[in-house]
Write a structure and sequence with these properties.
Blueprint: E1 2-3, E2 9-11, H1 14-20, H2 34-39, E3 43-47, E4 53-60, E5 66-74, H3 80-96, E6 100-104, E7 110-113, H4 115-120, H5 126-135, H6 145-157, E8 159-168, E9 175-186, E10 192-201, H7 203-217, H8 227-238, E11 245-252, H9 255-262, H10 264-282, E12 287-292, E13 295-301, H11 303-307, H12 309-321, E14 324-326, E15 329-331, E16 335-342, H13 349-365, E17 371-373, H14 377-398, E18 401-410, E19 415-427, E20 431-433, H15 439-445, H16 448-463, E21 471-475, H17 478-482, H18 486-497, E22 504-508, H19 510-513, H20 517-529, E23 533-539, H21 545-551, E24 556-559, H22 561-565, H23 571-587, E25 590-593, H24 599-607, E26 612-613, E27 622-623, H25 624-627
Parallel strand pairs: 16-17, 19-21, 21-22, 22-23, 23-24, 24-25, 25-26
Antiparallel strand pairs: 1-2, 1-5, 3-4, 4-5, 6-7, 6-10, 8-9, 9-10, 11-13, 11-16, 12-13, 14-15, 18-19, 18-26, 18-27, 19-20
Length: 655
């Protein structure tokens, strides 16, 4: 008999109707609770209306269906027909069921097996399978302990439900997975005489679960452990008070540049190489995880790992410093590494991760491409940094920030031609803070775009009040340049203040424009279309500045102060400056030398044809009111002896 999910009769053969006393129109079992029958994995014994004493068994199928079989224990003399028909119906269900159905003796010897079970084992018929199984019982479960577990469950609970196991296919001995339900068939006295059960192929189910587990535990790109698996492993270690481990947190230093310049495929290749190198350094037994993006972690256990933690960190830095060769390109990334030990530096997982990150932050602050071990003083410094970040957020809205202006001198006119706007923070308790005290905090907190946009607006508003011959240069940060809104910020600032676009110069370092070529070109073209001018800052310190001069319409280059400082003692510095001035002159680009502090430096630079000078010799950065007084705008003939060569203005477009 076949019952539906609601207990209704979907099919009952003639023998079943006779045993249960069912009329053809009956759709429910009389005097039985069909739900209880479906939920039970064991048997019920009772006397049927036919007079037969039967043992009832329930076999669950997919979709909530249940097969009910009646095993006659005692029958009246006139019940032989019912017995024959019941057995015939039982055989019909066996043969036609889509899942494997079996009846075994208590010792495991197969007595019955439907065709579906025979096919699962590589045979065409029940007879073939039973004959082969009798001749060579073999092992059914791949894991021998699984058989013990099966019998333990059926004895203790009276049945087995959804037991998933790896088994051998009898004929070929290949392995596959099954899910199994089983129960005892008992005699009239309640004594078990058989084991019946259903078997379904669960290979796809197990493989699907394994794939999900792999995805959860493994980073599919690099083969390293996932964040999920890493945290589970770390939690297991820190829950054991006797454990010792070392955690290395790793950030790649120039990964974004690789992605932007060489593409994401190259970035993926770098990540795979990094994971491979970390596994080689960490050794067997260690956990190498990719936490996300270009963040990795290495977890090494044991006292020996703690003893050589400094050495391992240095090895990580060394091996990741080696360039990765990708399709003819050499990608040099390098890494910063933070190190923390358990239990020396932390009491639990959360604290260990936090302290390793503190050490990583310090490694970055120390110049990157290095490692740093946690010490407890870092906590105090971190608290100060977080406090400074909070105060900086408040300072933006409280208008505590101020622009200072340093004069830029035109050598031809011996007078101030404009200013560079430099940010200062008028802290209510710490006084005036220079950018070195808060810019990195702003970068880490994602505030640089807000600060940069504010600087552009403020500089335009203040310089618009000065004579037209004076311009202003404003530095642009990498995050500000990469944002989609910088062009609109500049456009609105010019419109609202009435400042002529030619009086505004945006200073870009190589790092700022070291992004994808399409993005850099689009943003620069849009800025130039507004009529503003662009300056390439820190010229000569990068590795592709010349290509930028060729690619983009810069109107000015700024010679880095490191070349100016050694102009007298290092002939090479003078040669470089001379070459830059000559190159810029040929391209129609103005040259500004930064860091001019002595009259000798000024005289040399002027003699070499450098058109503009900036430095403490002419004035330190000053508040707006001080920088724009008549004193600051005076002629500087005395400071610049000798003839004044002609040169294009610093805020004029190149020819």
């Amino acid at each position: 008999m076949l019952l539906g999910a609601d207990g209704g009769i979907l099919f009952a053969n003639a023998a079943a109707r006779e045993i249960f006393g069912l009329a053809p129109e009956d759709r429910r079992l009389p005097d039985l609770n069909p739900v209880a029958v479906q939920d039970a994995v064991s048997e019920a014994r009772m006397e049927m209306p036919s007079g037969a004493a039967v043992s009832l068994s329930a076999m669950p199928l997919d979709g909530g269906l249940t097969v009910i079989t009646a095993d006659l224990q005692n029958a009246r003399s006139d019940g032989s027909s019912a017995l024959f028909q019941a057995e015939a119906g039982y055989a019909s269900l066996f043969d036609n069921a889509i899942c494997g159905i079996y009846r075994d003796r208590l010792d495991g010897t197969p007595v019955r097996a439907n065709r579906a079970l025979a096919l699962l084992n590589g045979y065409e018929t029940e007879e073939e399978f039973l004959s082969a199984a009798a001749a060579d019982p073999g092992n059914w479960y791949v894991d021998p302990n699984r058989s013990k577990e099966f019998h333990r469950l059926i004895k203790s609970a009276g049945g087995v439900r959804d037991l998933v196991s790896e088994v051998y296919r009898h004929r070929t001995r290949e392995t596959f997975w099954i899910t199994e339900n089983a129960w005892f068939v008992r005699d009239a006295n309640g004594k078990p005489v058989y084991i019946e059960g259903t078997i379904q192929d669960a290979t796809e189910r197990v493989q699907g679960m394994a794939a999900i587990e792999r995805q959860a535990n493994t980073d599919l790109l690099t083969g390293a452990a996932s964040r999920f698996h890493f945290l589970n492993t770390l939690n297991a270690i820190t829950r054991d008070a006797g454990s010792v481990c070392v955690l290395f947190t790793i950030d790649l230093d120039k990964f974004k540049e690789v992605n932007d310049l060489l593409g994401h495929a190259a970035g993926d290749a770098v990540l795979k190489t990094v994971a491979s190198r970390l596994r080689a350094v960490a050794g067997p037994g260690a956990t190498v995880a990719r936490l996300g993006g270009d963040e990795f972690a290495v977890l090494v256990t044991g006292s020996a790992a703690a003893i050589k933690a400094d050495f391992t960190a240095a090895e990580i830095v060394r091996t990741l410093k080696v360039p990765v060769q990708i399709g003819g390109h050499s990608a040099a990334v390098g890494a910063s590494v933070g190190v923390a030990c358990y239990p020396a530096h932390a009491a639990d997982t959360t604290e260990l991760l936090s302290h390793a990150d503190m050490a990583l932050y310090r490694a970055k602050a120390n110049g990157r491409n290095g490692a740093c071990m946690f010490d407890h003083t870092m906590k105090t410094r971190l608290q100060l940094r977080l406090s400074l970040e909070k105060e900086l957020r408040e300072a933006i809205s409280a208008d505590e920030l101020e622009l200072y202006y340093q004069p830029i001198i035109e050598t031809a006119a011996n007078a101030t031609a404009g200013y560079e706007a430099l940010m200062r923070w008028n802290h209510p308790h710490r006084g005036f803070l220079q950018p070195a005290h808060f810019i990195q905090v702003a970068e880490d907190a994602g505030l640089m775009k807000d600060l940069g946009d504010w600087a552009i607006r403020r500089a335009c508003r203040q310089i618009a009040l000065l004579p037209d011959r004076l311009g202003v240069a404003v530095n642009v940060s990498p995050s500000q340049f990469r944002s989609s809104g910088i062009v609109e910020v500049v456009r609105r600032a010019l419109t609202e203040t009435g400042l002529s676009p030619s009086r505004l110069t945006l200073e870009l370092t190589e790092t700022v424009i070291l992004t994808s070529e399409s993005i850099a070109t689009r943003v620069i073209d849009d800025l130039l279309s507004l009529g503003v001018q662009l300056a390439l800052d820190d010229f000569g310190t990068g590795y592709s500045s010349l290509s930028y001069l060729q690619r983009y319409a810069f109107s000015k280059v700024k010679i880095d102060r490191s070349f100016v400082a050694g102009i007298a003692a290092k002939p090479a510095n003078l040669a470089i400056i001379r070459a830059i001035v000559k190159l810029a002159g040929d391209l129609g680009i103005a040259v500004v030398a930064e860091g001019v502090e002595t009259e000798a430096q000024a005289a040399t630079l002027r003699a070499e044809g450098c058109g503009f000078l900036q430095g403490f010799l002419f004035g330190k950065p000053m508040p707006y009111q001080d920088a724009t007084t008549e004193t600051a705008l005076r002629s500087l003939k005395d400071a610049l002896p000798g003839p004044a060569p002609s040169a294009p203005g610093p805020f004029q477009k190149r020819a």
